[in-house]
Every structure is written in C-alpha cells, then in structure tokens.
Records
---
Amino acid sequence: MSIKYAILGFLNWTPLSGYDLKKLFAESAILYWSGNNNQIYRALVELHQENRVTQDVAYQSDKPPRKVYTITDQGRADLRQWLQATPEVTQIRSGLLIQLLWADLLAPAELDELLARYEDELRVYHLMLQEQSRRDQAGQTAVSTPRTPREAYLWAQVTTFWTTSYENELAWIRQLRTNLPTA
Amino acid sequence: MSIKYAILGFLNWTPLSGYDLKKLFAESAILYWSGNNNQIYRALVELHQENRVTQDVAYQSDKPPRKVYTITDQGRADLRQWLQATPEVTQIRSGLLIQLLWADLLAPAELDELLARYEDELRVYHLMLQEQSRRDQAGQTAVSTPRTPREAYLWAQVTTFWTTSYENELAWIRQLRTNLPTA
DNA sequence: CAAATCATGTAATGTGTTACATGATTCG
DNA sequence: CGAATCATGTAACACATTACATGATTTG
C-alpha cells in the first residue's frame, strides 16, 4: 500500500491534516489516487498505530478541530527504506487503445468522430497539466519550494516526463488520424 | 466494468472459453487486467445472464468439458455502442515518479543505484514487448490476422504507441541520470 | 440565502490480485 | 515421476471510488 509512503513523503516536509492531504492528492495527477477521504483517513489511522506519525489535535474555537499529523523518526526511516526499493515499471492504462483493437466494427465516420473527441479531451487535459505545473512553480501548494538544487532538478524532470508523455500521445493520435485508411 | 467489453471484443472474432480468454489477457500488456480467473469467469457468467453471450458446453471424453462462449447480436450491438463512447484520457501510473518527488532524502550513490536498477528493469520490459509484438505478427494467438487493411493499420498504431511510450521513458531516464547533480 | 469551503469520518459498492481447490493428461 | 498444461471455479483479501452524514463558516 504505497499511498502510506506518499503521505509520509508529504509529512516529511511539514505536518499536515487529513484534509490538507486530501487536497494535495486531489490536485496532483502524478499521485494517481483519487484523493478520496476513505483511503487517506484510514491510512493515517494505520500510520499512527504503526508509530510512523504522531497526532496532535488543534482545537480551534468555532472551526472543527484539526488533527495534525507529524512524521516520527521511525516514519522517516521507513520512508527512506521505501525510497530505495526498485519500483515496478510504469503502467499505462489506455481505454482508447483497447477500443482501437476492435474499432474496425465502426464506420469510418464514427471512428473519426471518436478520435476527434478523444483528441479534444487530451488537449484539455494537457492544458490542465501545464496550468498546474505553472501553479506549482509559483509556489501555491503547501510543499513547493525545493530544498536543494538536486531536488529542484528532480522535480523538473518529473514534470518533464509527465508533460512530454501526453505530448507524445497527442502527436501520435494526430498522425494516426491523418493516415487512417478510409476503408 | 470495461473488462466485459474487452471480452466481447475477443468473442466478436471467434467463440472462446474462459480459459482461452484468461490466456489472451495474460499475454497482452495492453489489456491491463492481470488475466486472473476470478474476474474473467465472473464476467462471463454476467455476460451470459445479460444475454450478450451464449454458452455451449463441449463435452470431451477424457478432458474436462470446455464452456465455449459465443457473442450474440445483442452483445455485438452493445460492443458497437461502447466502441463509440469517448474513453478517458490515458492513465500513467509511475511509482518511480512518486519516489523521485521525495528522493532528495537519499544519498547520491543510493539514488543512482535506484535509477540504474529501474533502467535495467525498463529495458527488460521493453525487450519483452518487442518479442511479444513479433509473436503477434507471426500469428500465434487465437485472434491475430487482421480482417481489413484498416484493422491492420489500427493494430500497427496500437503497437507503435505502446513501444514508443516505453522508449520515451528509457530516453528520459538516461538523460536524467547523466545530468543528475552530484549534490 | 444558497453554495462553497473547512474538517471530520462511515457505508456501500466496485475492481483487482493471490492463493486455494480439483482432477485428468501430456511432456521432458 | 515430477512439472506443466488443460479447464473449471471459490475464498480471502487488497485497493479504490462514490455517496452519505454532520455541522459550522465564509463568500457571492
């Protein structure tokens, strides 16, 4: 369950509440979990039981109390260990590709409409990504300023990989559409 | 549950048993389900209840009986309709990227080892893909010979997208490694 | 005044993986 | 003779999403 380590990674920056984490997950496309409560709040309970985080309840008059979680030395040690494990090869889940396998069932016009709609969707998504990385660089998020030059470099490379992946898909689909046999 | 439509896509080629489908899913990286029994056999039961496939039990003396599923007109109509729906944007799930976000916790040597191990893994995976697409083109699988020029074109494009995606990742990681700040 | 945000969480359901179970046959 | 393949399926668990529930505050 690597969502726990993603959470520890954030907490290694700064203490955060479940609600803060929820927003961070929801904002970022790279952290592919949907940013739903259930997973995050349950993970925090478990991390607490495992002594990898501590919980401090900040009572605020008028507003609901915030439960702020702080990473422990144990948590940091576990995070470090996880960071050294070889991750699985990147997974690509493309619904479009699966549809294309059987798409010969469609009339030429239908297929072209499908591809056009998908290309639009892709372009919107790509724009969203660009906006997001612009916002990140402007430093709006809780964790945003790189602590070392190496960290700055790594973050830039992560963004590069992400955006170029979708640019490649855009280029691919444009080329596919122009060369499509009409029958 | 789009695994049902992936199954219908296969059955639109030729009738198949659960076991056949299991192997087809397990072989193909693009069909990202793991090819486990549970999902496939359950999906077939449901498809049968929904009158999208028919079931014929072929009793073979000595061997266990095969339950062969055939797509119905209803199933084909549903498949056609699904094919026209705009799929979601391709999802990329990269554990490496998440690790890199927090990787500044690692010593330079540790980080480089991690990247080297991952690059090896990627290269192996890429070779596996090439072999697989070679086998597919040689026509070893149950469904393999394109029925029309357009289908041939679509299949080639699907393979292209898949392999170039991983080639891009390989190029990216090589470049990342060579430019990594040592501190 | 309605909608969004803050902040917590639970319930129900859906999706996906691993392991278990059976029993015959074929291949090295 | 042990391992793999053929062929079916169940059970247990892990992971993920949507919807529900509450209640105060801020913003348009």
---
Amino acid sequence: MPELPEAETIARILDKRLRGKTLAGRGVLRRVWRTGKCVIFDFDDQQLTARLGMTGTFRLNVEPGIHTRQIFDFENERLLYNDIRKFGRLTWNSPLDIGPDILTIDPTTFAELLSNRSRPIKALLLDQSFVSGIGNIYADECLFAAKIHPLLAANRVDGLTLHSESIAVLKEAIRCGGSTISDFFDPLGRSGRYQEKHRVYGREGKPCQNCGTAIVRAVVAQRGTHYCPECQLLPRPGRQKQRAPHR
DNA sequence: ATCTATTCCTGGCTGC
DNA sequence: TGCAGCCAGGAATAGA
C-alpha cells in the first residue's frame, strides 16, 4: 500500500520523466512532488492530486490493462493510473486537507502535538489529519524503531525519539524505493526493497531481531498491528504518585 | 474528543 | 477444478 516512501518514489521518477511536458487541456507540467501520501502534479494553473489508497499505481509507457482507470497522454510519454481495488482518488484543483508532513514537521512541534492527545499512538499516527505520510506498515516499523508500544497514549510518548526514529525509517525506505508487499511497483515497474528490512510488519511469530521474542499481532485502530512485546513494553497506566510510606 | 462499526473493492487464500 | 467465504486496509461516514 503506498505510504510516504512509495509516494516519494513515484513522485521522484515522474518528476524526472514528465517535468516540462505538455498534457492536452492541462498545460505544461511544472513539477511532480509529494506531501503526506499524496502525489501532486503542478501544471501551469491546474493541479492534480493523487491519493493512491491501497493499490493505486502509476505506470509509464505500458499497455493499459483491466485495472487501468485513467490514461494521461503527455507528449511522447503515456502515463497510466492503475488501481485494483479502486480505493484511490484522483482529483483536480482540490484543496489539500491533511496535517503536516511527518518528514518536514519540526520535531518540537511534533512532540507538542502529541502531548495534547490521549489516543493510542498508533491510531494517531494513522490519522492523516493529525500528521500525514504514515500508514499501517510504517506506523508499526516506526514504533518498533522507537521502542514504543502501539497502544501507549500519545501524551505519554517520547515525541522527540519517535520523530527521529520515524525519520530514519522513512528515509531508509525511500532509499530502498519503498516496500512491495504485493501490489506496489514504481512507474518503471520496479519493486521496492524495504520489505526485506521490515522488522515487525508481517512478521507475526517470527523472532524479534533485537531480543528473539516472537513478534505479536494484535488489532489496533481496526488495523493489523505488529510489535515486539518485550522491546515495546506498555508501561503501567499512570496513577497518582505513591506517597512515601511513613517509616 | 474518541471510540466502534460500516462502506467502498478485489485478489488471494482457505477449506470443502 | 470449482466455489463459497473470509481477509487485507485508507479514508469517509454515521452513531454512541
């Protein structure tokens, strides 16, 4: 499923290949970029926003197939939008109503935002109106990297640690061209490689690479959630400070 | 504010 | 070989 690293991979390739080319009726493509999980095409005075949902992909210069939903004929380049499950959305000139991008938000700001919220941290990370870019796979990977239990209340999370670990995970995933679980291919048809580096997602029952404990799968915020029960301990719920016993 | 359930959708899997 | 049933989940939505 395309999350930030996959969207970034797509945007970089399409920007390189399509920038400066004309699309009939829309003008010259000035750049392709990403924010959150969205891939955005800036034309002269119009903008196309792609939310890829679960299975949305772009492909350059291949024959349309049964899952092709849109065709964009640029000069000398044909861009297809394919989407098996049709959860993706392509919209023209629509306002982008999402929270700050996780890669560009200031760490202190991120930590402050967390301190105001009581929801389980994983549910908050998945909420694109709170912070954008992280989906189910990278939420699990980022929380593992930061050694934070997915159910820990956001206001009890070390926001600076979570931020820095998340940045490291996402940047490495971008370097690997994203994760291919089943459906993700970049616009040139290549798989991602970051799935080989997953440490918890899809590894239920396999040993934690830190401590050897079996990775657990649970459901959090209606999503399959993978974590190490030893490395990602849930602290005892907060309670009144114990009075020191007399004597 | 936050939760749950439901809807959208289809390929891939299980079990008979 | 076929087929029914279930599952995965991003995002929107309704209702508690």
